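Quick one, tokens below:
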């Protein structure tokens, strides 16, 4: 069932009866047909048979995306005074080696030995074990509880659908399966291989055996220049482009934090099995913010403005108990109760909630899910995903992570670039520092070509990290997880960390980074589902209730007759609207007025202007509102300026009704 999404205009009942947007069950096939017919998007290279995970946007999809991005720029970059960037897509391999992507940005895949069909190993194990547990419940006659259904729903996003068969499992096995499922994000490829062998997991459709899991890096590799000696990758995220420019950004911001950089751009991931339309693709638009903040002071100067924003939270401890019920809470309370780690992270969660609702997302189908420890990168302090519910289940559309100082530290360690903030202290202060000293020869012999990188990494550590290493060294050795993602055991004879007293006039620190990362394609598709409904009278009459803010076309201009004078008039009106910057569309086809309106309901066009013979005699024009089909009438120029105000959001439909007369001349539904 599709619930009503927030429309841009209010619909006072005195103007027209309320719209029933839930008269029909949501039918994905009908929506898909509409999106194809109205060319929102289509498979890329379709006439050549297409390629999975690559899509082209048509005029409507491109217009919608451009408007979402425009709203995003205004909501974040302009409103928050962020520093905008446009960095290269082609990325030097060294950058992605340092960030850990070359070694770690990989998934494990398995292949059907006969058909060659490919699966993501973790997704397949998850799907099969869940189906077996479901079958076990059926065999035992246990009814599925709603929350478990919902958990399945959440995971449906990434898995192949596996049918359950009512077979009772040994109690021991049920426990083992539940344990594996809780830890599914933790397993290495060989471990997944063991699980597949032990529980005889085969291709669920063909029953054919599968190969051992093979690691597959999701980045598209390339070579820069004709010699092929400079290795590069198409970036898998825009974030690294921010970090490598941090020193310049900091200088631009007069050396002060907090501040944020923001970037909109394409990213590429060679997904193993892209099966869910725009939700898992190989090339997509991201909008990413990197907010740099003092690690000792994560308060946000504007937190008070969002303190009362209510979020729907799914915290990690609830998930640890296998439950999925959410809690509604203000962000102020969530930070005060330490459910959300800090004010800055909370601020961005609230601002993101406001953004999603502003562009028309149904707030009742948006939730913030906290990452569990096994989902987070080892360096991340706290992560929340904005998940949006669609027919694919609950899908992560925005990730909000506190990435701590990881990225800047590793790039600083690798390049020696000054990716640190220096703050002049009001008073000099005497501090105790921890200083690492190495047995250079022995250290070099043990760690060989990694020795330099390891040393730099340890030199760049914050005091707290050095203290942990020192404490471990006191017990004989310390294991350090380095920027390359590997763990190195350093014995106490190779490294000493001693306290030294120094007088400081400056405080130096590497800022922490809070990163809201938006997948625009996922947001766009979810918005289409949330906006879609069908008229009560006819299931085939689909409407996209996109707010005027993001609708690709704001106003349809039509005439009820093919009379040449009327045709000239609608082109004049269109010219006037274009001058005001209103994206309008003339439909001078010979289709009936009802058909023209229906066509534009499918395009999500919020307003329609119609001229008839009275327009020639009295200079009037009618104005139709898409969702309610209510109509108003007034002088042509007044109607145009009302449309302008409606589109800008300075008045709503009630405001429009105050400026025009109500009209019931032509009923289009
Ligand atoms: N293959 C993809 N297709 C479309 N959008 C994507 C894809 N991968 C990531 N995104 C978008 O980019 C955002 C940030 O990327 P991030 O690296 O956090 O995703 P992720 O955790 O790898 O996603 P997933 O677990 O679904 O693969 C996501 O919230 C999502 O909206």
């Amino acid at each position: 069932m599709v619930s009503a999404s927030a429309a841009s205009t209010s619909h006072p009942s005195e103007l027209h009866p309320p719209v029933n947007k839930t008269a029909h069950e949501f039918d994905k096939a009908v929506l898909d047909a509409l999106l194809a017919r109205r060319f929102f998007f289509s498979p890329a290279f379709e006439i050549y048979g297409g390629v999975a995970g690559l899509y082209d946007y048509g005029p409507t999809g491109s217009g919608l995306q451009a408007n979402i991005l425009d709203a995003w720029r205004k909501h974040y970059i302009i409103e928050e005074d962020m520093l905008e960037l446009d960095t290269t897509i082609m990325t030097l391999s060294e950058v992605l080696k340092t960030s850990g992507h070359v070694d770690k940005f990989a998934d494990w895949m398995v292949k059907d030995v006969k058909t060659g069909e490919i699966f993501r190993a973790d997704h397949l194990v998850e799907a099969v074990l869940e189906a077996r547990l479901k079958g076990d419940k059926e065999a035992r006659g246990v009814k599925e509880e709603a929350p478990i259904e919902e958990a399945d729903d959440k995971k449906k996003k990434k898995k192949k659908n596996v049918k359950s068969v009512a077979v009772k499992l040994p109690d021991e096995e049920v426990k083992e399966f539940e344990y594996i499922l809780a830890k599914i994000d933790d397993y290495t490829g060989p471990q997944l291989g063991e699980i597949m062998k032990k529980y005889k997991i085969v291709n669920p459709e063909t029953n054919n055996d599968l190969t051992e899991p093979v690691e597959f890096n999701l980045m598209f590799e390339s070579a820069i220049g004709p010699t092929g000696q400079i290795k590069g990758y198409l970036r898998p995220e825009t974030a690294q482009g921010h970090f490598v420019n941090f020193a310049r950004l900091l200088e631009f911001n007069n050396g002060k934090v907090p501040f944020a950089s923001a970037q909109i751009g394409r990213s590429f991931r060679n997904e193993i099995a892209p099966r869910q339309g725009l939700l898992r693709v190989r090339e997509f638009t991201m909008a990413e913010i990197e907010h740099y903040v003092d690690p000792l002071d994560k308060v946000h100067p504007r937190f008070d403005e969002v303190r009362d924003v209510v979020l729907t939270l799914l915290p990690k401890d609830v998930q640890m108990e296998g439950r999925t019920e959410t809690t509604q809470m203000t962000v102020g309370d969530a930070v005060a109760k330490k459910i959300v780690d800090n004010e800055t992270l909370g601020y961005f969660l609230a601002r993101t909630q406001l953004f999603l609702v502003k562009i028309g997302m149904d707030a009742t189908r948006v939730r913030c899910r906290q990452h569990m420890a096994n989902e987070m990168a080892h360096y991340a302090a706290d992560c929340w995903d904005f998940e949006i519910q669609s027919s694919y289940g609950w899908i992560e559309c925005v990730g909000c992570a506190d990435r701590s100082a990881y990225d800047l530290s590793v790039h600083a360690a690798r390049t020696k670039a000054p990716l640190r903030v220096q703050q002049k202290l009001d008073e000099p202060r005497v501090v105790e520092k921890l200083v690492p000293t190495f047995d250079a020869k022995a250290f070099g012999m043990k760690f060989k070509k990694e020795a330099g990188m390891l040393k730099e990494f340890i030199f760049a550590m914050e005091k707290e990290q050095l203290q942990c290493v020192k404490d471990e060294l006191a017990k004989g050795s310390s294991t350090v997880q380095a920027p390359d993602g590997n763990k190195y055991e350093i014995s106490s004879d190779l490294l000493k960390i001693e306290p030294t007293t120094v007088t400081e006039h400056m405080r130096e620190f590497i800022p922490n980074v809070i990163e809201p990362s938006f997948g625009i394609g996922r947001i766009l598709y979810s918005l289409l589902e949330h906006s879609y409904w069908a008229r009560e009278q006819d299931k085939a009459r689909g409407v996209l209730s996109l707010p005027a803010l993001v609708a690709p076309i704001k106003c349809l201009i039509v005439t009820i007759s093919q009379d040449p004078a009327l045709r000239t008039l609608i082109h004049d009106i269109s010219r006037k609207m274009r001058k005001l910057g209103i994206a309008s569309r003339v439909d001078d086809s010979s289709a009936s007025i009802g058909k023209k309106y229906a066509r534009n309901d499918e395009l999500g066009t919020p307003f329609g202007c119609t001229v008839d013979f009275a327009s020639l005699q009295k200079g009037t024009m009618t104005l139709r509102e898409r969702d309610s089909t209510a109509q108003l009438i007034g002088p042509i120029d007044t109607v145009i300026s009302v449309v302008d105000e409606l589109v800008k959001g300075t008045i709503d439909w009630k405001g429009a009704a105050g400026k025009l007369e109500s009209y019931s001349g032509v009923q289009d539904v």
